[in-house]
């Protein structure tokens, strides 16, 4: 699948999650520049893209922001140069009028940052949404888009029971796909301060592999597509990593043992 990724930095975010790396946001271009760059690149390219994918930020936090992001690519959709649009956003920023814009502008895949089904874990992670928001967003998205849950394991305050629940509740809601990420401590995050003050301890590699394998097995058995396990290796990530269960082939280690 040929995907053109566009990173939107923190466009539309009203808060800052404890694990979100601000230095990354500073390195990524302002979202308008990223949109212009993507537009010119696709215009000049001879390739056909299966999807243009917008990652990061909260593009659905305002109707105007969402339209500004999607509008430039409508012409490529019409002439078949891109076949679909993917956006990634927060569950509490999805409502009927946002859904209508997503439909009108040809969005085919919507990824939502669920992270955990525990309200306490979400609160300690400063996510600013609840389990109820996830269920409400799911009701609005299901059957209309390819819906992807982004999930994390090893968040602050999380116990094994929370980890089990996040897997089992995902299986019962049955989104089209999932991404599953062990939490990493990155530079410039609130999580780094929590880690250095001793109030947060990341999962060990053994624990991260155990839960990721368990999640992978459960999702596959339920017919849910597993799009990604663990962050992809990159020069940027190795520079920013403070602590946590990371290795370049984490996903392969998880899938390889099945
Ligand atoms: S919603 Fe996403 S981009 Fe915005 S602060 Fe949280 S993790 Fe970062």
From TrEMBL:
Biological processes annotated in GO: tRNA wobble base 5-methoxycarbonylmethyl-2-thiouridinylation
GO molecular function list: 4 iron, 4 sulfur cluster binding; metal ion binding; oxidoreductase activity
InterPro entries: ELP3, Elp3/MiaA/NifB-like_rSAM, Radical_SAM_C, rSAM, rSAM_horseshoe, rSAM_sf
Catalytic activity, EC: 1.-.-.-
Record-level GO cellular component terms: cytoplasm
Occurrences of domain Radical SAM core (ranges): 1-230
SUPFAM superfamilies attached to this UniProt entry: Radical SAM enzymes
Needed co-factor(s): [4Fe-4S] cluster
Domain of life of the native organism: Bacteria
Keyword annotations from UniProtKB, A to Z: 4Fe-4S, Iron, Iron-sulfur, Metal-binding, Oxidoreductase, S-adenosyl-L-methionine
CDD domains: Radical_SAM
UniProt name for this protein: Oxygen-independent coproporphyrinogen III oxidase
């Amino acid at each position: 699948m040929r995907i053109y990724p566009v990173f939107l930095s923190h466009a539309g975010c009203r808060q800052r999650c404890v694990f979100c790396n601000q230095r990354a946001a500073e390195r990524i271009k302002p979202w308008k520049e990223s949109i212009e760059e993507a537009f010119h690149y696709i215009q000049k390219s001879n390739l056909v893209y299966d999807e243009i994918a917008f990652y990061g930020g909260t593009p659905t936090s305002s109707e105007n922001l969402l339209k500004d992001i999607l509008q430039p690519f409508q012409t490529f959709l019409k002439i078949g140069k891109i076949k679909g649009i993917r956006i990634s956003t927060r569950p509490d920023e999805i409502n009927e009028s946002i859904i209508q814009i997503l439909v009108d502008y040809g969005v085919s895949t919507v990824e939502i940052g669920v992270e955990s089904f525990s309200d306490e874990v979400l609160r300690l992670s400063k996510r600013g949404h609840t389990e109820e928001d996830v269920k409400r967003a799911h009701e609005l998205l299901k059957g209309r888009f390819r819906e992807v849950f982004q999930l994390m394991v090893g968040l602050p305050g999380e116990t094994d029971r929370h980890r089990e629940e996040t897997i089992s509740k995902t299986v019962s809601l049955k989104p089209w796909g999932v991404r599953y990420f062990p939490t990493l401590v990155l530079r410039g995050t609130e999580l780094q301060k929590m880690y250095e003050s001793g109030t947060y301890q990341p999962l060990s590699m053994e624990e991260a592999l155990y839960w990721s394998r368990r999640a992978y097995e459960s999702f596959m058995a339920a017919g849910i597509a597993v799009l990604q396990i663990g962050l992809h290796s990159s020069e940027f990530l190795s520079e920013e990593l403070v602590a946590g269960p990371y290795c370049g082939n984490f996903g392969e280690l998880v899938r390889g043992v099945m």
